[in-house]
Structures are given as structure tokens and as C-alpha cells.
Amino acid sequence: MQELDFYHHANPYEYAIADTLTHSDSFFKESQSSNDFVQEASYSSKDRFLASVDEPSPDLWGNSLTSQKTLLSFRSNTSFKDVSEREKVTEKKARSIVAIANNQIFVEGEYNSLESHLETLKHQFPDYFSEILTTVWTNLFTDEKALANFLGMLSTVDYDIVGRSGDMFAAACYSHQDIQVKDAVVRVFEAWEQPGHANYLQMMEPFNVPFLEKYRLSIIEYLQSIK
Predict the structure, then answer these.
(1) Which residue of 32, 66, 70, 221 is surrounded by the most CB atoms within 10 Å?
(2) Average pLDDT over residues 67-71
């Protein structure tokens, strides 16, 4: 039987097929009589497996519909082509955000184009937005100056635009070793003025620099005071 390389795809249905086909030949031999097996020999293991899913056979599965329903649940409406297109769009839009972080210097009180850009992306690709920000994070994390600059711009973005996706982005950035990046994260949470963000800051590692630690604690107190 030709080797099937399904594990490189994100589709869980194909993953289930690959996992099942590992033992498919012995499975079908044990589950069918010798006459049935000879009749089915012209089919590949994959064909026989798919046929059993599309046309449930109680005899094949030992009169158990539970296993059939479990396998059917792995099916996905997203084709490999759709997944590929999603990845292309996500990467392309993430690069457009990274370009802003690299080409525009954040100056407090001055306009930057990040907010309008993010607002447009969220409107056009609402289902991709979180993935786009995650991809931005992976691209900027190794460049502390660009990351701190981006966080500065992010602090000027209306929280309603970024929402929980913004929470995850900022919180993940606090794991960076650079002190300026960590400081920028605190400033983002301060600017967004969301009381729940006090819990994030409380759980984050304290600063080793006294005045920055004092600043972190003051922002926690400030956010907790917001009703």
C-alpha cells in the first residue's frame, strides 16, 4: 500500500484517516469473513475505510454505531485549499502590520496608522484576526525594538478593536526578557483601562528595577479602582 502522508495537514478528518490506516489491513481482515475480504481486495485500504464511513456497516463495526459517529465527527468542511488560502491571507496581513512596526516610530500623542489598519483588518477578516495577531507576535518577538515600538502603537488602539486577541498578544509579550518590552506591556494595559487587566498584571513577574515595579503596582491599583 502506498504510504499516505496525511500528518502534514491540519484537517482533523485526514489525521483520523492516517491514524486509522496504520492498522487498517489487519483490522479489515479480522472484521470480515475470508470471502468478503477477497471481494474487497481490489480496493485500497483508504477506499475501504472511506466507504465504511460514508455507508455505515453494523457488521463491520460489530453493530456499534458509536465508533461510526466518532469517525464522522472528525470530518471538516474546510478543504486543504481553504486552509492554504487562510494561511496565505494570515501571513500577508501580518506582514502588513509588521511593516508598520518597522517603518513608523511610535511617539506618544502623535498619530500612527495602526488603529485604522487593525480596524480594517478586523472588519474584512473577523475570523482571521486572532491568527493575524499571533503571526505578528511570532515575527516581532525576536526584535525587541520593533516589538516595544509596536506595543507603544498598540496602546493607542481602541480596546474594542483588539479585544481578547489584544489581551493575549500583550500578555504573551511580557514573557520577553527585554525590560522595555515588559514596560510597554504595562503601558498597554494602563491605556486600555480594563479592570480585568489588573489580574493579568498581578500574575506577571515583578520587575527587578524598583521604579518600574512601583509603576506596575500603581497600575494594578488604578485598574482595580475603575468601576
Answers:
(1) 32
(2) 46
Q: Burial of 178 by CB count in 10 Å (0-12 exposed, 13-18 middle, 19+ buried)? A: middle
What's the burial of 68, exposed, middle or buried (CB within 10 Å: 0-12/13-18/19+)? middle
Answer yes or no: is pLDDT of 200 > 80.
Answer: yes
Number of CB atoms found within 10 A of residue 27's CB: 16
- Record the cell numbers describing residue 187, joined without a space: 503601558
Contact 178/135 with Cβ under 8 angstroms? no
Output the CA torsion 37→40→41→42 (10° steps).
170
Tell me the DSSP string of 103-138.
Answer: HS---TTS--SHHHHHHHHHHH-TTTHHHHHHHHHH
CATH architecture of 80-225: Alpha Horseshoe (1.25)
pTM comes to 0.64
Residues of the chain with CATH 1.25.40: 80-225
pLDDT of residue 179: 95
